[in-house]
């Protein structure tokens, strides 16, 4: 189960784990939960358990069979560091990523404490990017946990951005994504929150990616800021740029 993705900062998704549970305010209107329930209702075998954590052992080796380099978001429908995902399963996913240097893998978690616990036991090849979600100041501890991981690229996903982040700890952070919440019940993102993060990234020369304003119908508001889009990303491990219609600047090593 690897599929092309409409997410602006990746090319495709790979879900050796599906299902999750809520841990903070950023989870309240989880898009993955809505999608999982829809797929369950449609009779999808991968989602017969709905949004309960489910391991798909047969998908662990899937990237090994993909020769063309890809940017791959790992577990868009789950959290690899969920407490119900055994440590040996996490290690097998990392072994696959290490064995596929042609791809760039993006791993994102809200469970930074478990990341900190398992990080010393995992391989950290250059093609594995590790990130944490930071929706407001209440979860800034996740950044400190991420800073302990030995990933070559560490990134923050400030999406859905639900409050100001006036003092983001950007030491050792290589990329910041910001986006407003979208879909049913979407909570608004204030422009001053976005601008503050953009300025902090600019001062620290951290690549800044503005994903969307969000809203119930996100396409109406788009993703432009100051009449332009912000698509900065770190260089890929393979030396290529992700194909998003324009080449991506190499802004950090």
Key words describing this protein structure:
single chain; 253 residues; alpha/beta; TIM Barrel; two-stranded antiparallel sheet; disordered C terminus
Give a summary of the structure in a few sentences.
This protein has 253 residues and is of the alpha/beta class.
Account of the 3D structure:
By secondary structure, this protein is α/β, with parallel strands linked by helices. The chain has helices at 31-41, 87-98, 112-118, 141-147, 191-204; strands spanning 2-4, 12-14, 17-18, 54-55, 71-74, 104-109, 128-133, 153-158, 175-179, 208-212. The strands form 2 sheets. The chain has an 8-stranded mixed sheet. A two-stranded antiparallel ribbon has the order 3-4. Helix 3 runs parallel beside helix 4.
Strand content: 15-25%
Cα shape: globular
| Topology-level CATH name | TIM Barrel
The number of helices is: 5
Estimate nothing, just give the exact number of structural domains: 1
Give, in spatial order, the strands making up the sheet with the most strands. 1-2-5-6-7-8-9-10
Could you tell me how far the N terminus lies from the C terminus, measured between alpha carbons in angstroms? 31 Å
Strand and helix layout:
Blueprint: E1 2-4, E2 12-14, E3 17-18, H1 31-41, E4 54-55, E5 71-74, H2 87-98, E6 104-109, H3 112-118, E7 128-133, H4 141-147, E8 153-158, E9 175-179, H5 191-204, E10 208-212
Parallel strand pairs: 2-5, 5-6, 6-7, 7-8, 8-9, 9-10
Antiparallel strand pairs: 1-2, 3-4
